[in-house]
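Z., the sequence and structure:
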Amino acid sequence: MQFRRALTIALAGLASIIGVAALAQDARKAARNKLNENTVFLAGGTAGATFNTLANEIALVVSDDNLRVVAVSTSNAVQNVRDLVYLRSIDVAFTKIDVLNRLQTSGELGPDLKRQIVYIAPLTTEEFHILARPEIKSVEDLKGKKVSFHILGGSVSTLATEVFETLGIKVEAIHSSQPEAIAKMRRKELDATICVCAKVVSAYLDVKPEEGFRFLDVPYLPAMEAVFLPGKITDEDYPNVLAKDTKVNTIAVYNMLVTLNWPKGSERYNRTARFVDAFFSKREKFLKPPWQKSWKEVNFAGKVPGWKRFAPAQEWLDRREREASKTGASFGQSLDDKAGPAGQGRGVPQAENERVFREFLEWSRKRGR
């Protein structure tokens, strides 16, 4: 009898332990599921590169108790798109429009990439820098000269090749990193170096004014409109190269955030939608130190020619515009105010028009509407 009683007590204790363990296991499982449901993996770039810097800033600004953004170090804009398509863990990625266009044309990721990939927003721009030796006065002077197209096989090399073909200027392409290229220019082994990079390129800050190196103007031709937009480099960017109050006209390309065209209502769709809401809602935080100054030029409402925006991102922008319209304001009215009494705002170029849209909400807020 005592044995039975002891056994019953022991079994009851064991059942209690098992029950507690099961509850703890269920709690851990629920916590794990919740964490995964609210974690977004963002493919950035190599350490020190523009994509990597921006991805880490997004992770720091956007992450909170309800959403965690993990910035992933990657190789380049092309690999980011491949990872987005093929890797289970990547939800959002940085890339460039020229990369998407080339992958669409090649078909290497499928017959119609535009059905797979959608963009969230264009972000900062990367300007086409041509830094040349003193005797080179214009881009036409580079004909037959030795020009560094940065690292072989990279996005810069591809873009530089396309631009010079469009310009009809044949050069001898050399492939060196920016510090290496500048050293070769100093030894007169190289005539110019190219970087399609966000301002400011740290390697160019080491150039001494007395060396006489200069940035060259790059004409913006109609054939470039599918990939590039007008850009500029000023003395504020490189006071060691450009004289005070001077600038160089060039071309630029958008960095952009893309995601997959997830089925509506799926876990990946919902998770990325939460990221979009948090990212767009905190956009003003990026405008303050210590974040990159280039965020000030970002227009989340900007459009990427030929590509479709992720539905929740478009819905967020539409919702904001409806809210603004209820106040009696309009984007057109804000343009008129910026234009002055003559109303020149209606003639603002498309690239500037899109950039101004970002300022519209701030304009409306300051008017107290």
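Residues 328-369 form one domain. The radius of gyration is 26 Å.

Let me know what you think.
H.
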